[in-house]
Amino acid sequence: MISTRRRVAGAVVCGVAVWTAAGITSGQGRGGQFPGGTNPDGSLRPSAPVRGLFTQEAYTEYEILAPGSESFRIRFLPENNRAGATEIVNATRGGSEGSGIEVYDPRTGNPIKFTYEVGATPDEHAIHAPLPFPVPEGGIGRVLIFKTYKDARTYMMNGEDIVWVRSLSGYRLGVLLPRGFAFLSSNVAAQVSTTASGQLRLAFANPSGQSNPVTIHARKTGATFTSAPYTDMFFDDMKTLYDLGDPAAGMLSVQQTYSDYRRGGTLRLDSLSYLALKDLKVIDLDTARVLPTVKRGTQTEAALEVPITKEHQSAHLRLTGTIADGSYKLEGGELMLTRTMHGLRNTVLLPAGWEVSAVSQSGTIGRTADGRAFVALINLNGENSYTVIVRARKP
Asked: By Cβ atoms counted within 10 A, which residue in 8, 36, 81, 202 is the most buried?
């Protein structure tokens, strides 16, 4: 994938960028006072301040194909939240030869007719995938892309061993070995599992959201690997924003976005078991329309406009509401939030004028365009829940 997103008329070119609630901002380290990169003497230049509430928006899986083929199969799920956008453009990295392209509409699971166009030079190509309808205000356009790359610089042989090396910029990621191969080494901390077909698989995320050079060495083995399908929390695109109001009132607004692949015409809203949301609203992000909900015993379900019945299909939902359960309060003049959080990505947005003083778990600190401080937490462990304490003070 290319390493930037840039706006074009009615489209977005997909790669790495910082997404905010207001839309797309420029990627860190591009232009301006803080260009990032290195000086002529090799010293680092500062990158731009962190402004994006979340990273790891797009998910990418690389399946390494037969030894000697120099090829790997990619599954890519890009998004575009710019209202009015009509297509998603996915450029082929220079030197990578693209083929076997398939594009699907995740809402219906139906194939999308696309074009694969030559760029300014013969080495530049891009998939132009039209969206089923323009991105609505408050919605998100998305497509599912499958493609095969052939790139001898990425996938090579070292004798009978295979070597796969690629700079992966900011994605939630998965890498599969060919069947019958075992890892000699991998330079990234990752979850390792075995698929139903007996292939070994890595799953990981890069907390910084910036370039992540990955090198994998693997060798043919006589071992037979039986299925060990751990839940891939890096494929799960759930992200939860806790927007803190006046700490004296103890009220926080919650916005949770995720995709659900379970089949049926209604979907159980499992996160309500730990998010006791008042004024609950469920939005279908493909259309930006509010979905009706129904209670079945202790469970709440959302009724889908398009039932999930087949492969490549999912619902893209956003839950909103408020919480006042005592987890957010003032203590000795200090703001304090104590919550058990779930999933890969959780961001705490402080009220205006408050400064972060302590965070009990590892998180990225940044500021929004209007100056509000936030803490973005990424859970890299297999356990889905963990307790976080965030403290802040006023100057």
From this structure: 202
Task: Give residue-wise pLDDT tens across range 113-158.
Answer: 999 987 777 677 899 999 999 999 999 999 999 999 999 999 999 9
Rounded Cα distance between 234 and 171, Å, is 9
Domain limits, the chain:
11-220, 239-393
Token duo for residue 217: 């060495």
Query: Which string of b and e fits 290-329 if b means at least 16 CB within 10 Å?
Result: ebebeeeeeebbbebeeebeeebbbbbbbbbbebeeeebe
11-220 and 239-393 have identical folds: yes
Report whether CATH 2.60.40.1730 matches the domain 11-220.
Answer: yes
Q: CB–CB of 143/106 below 8 Å?
A: yes
Q: Answer yes or no: CATH 3.10.20.30 is held by domain 239-393.
A: no
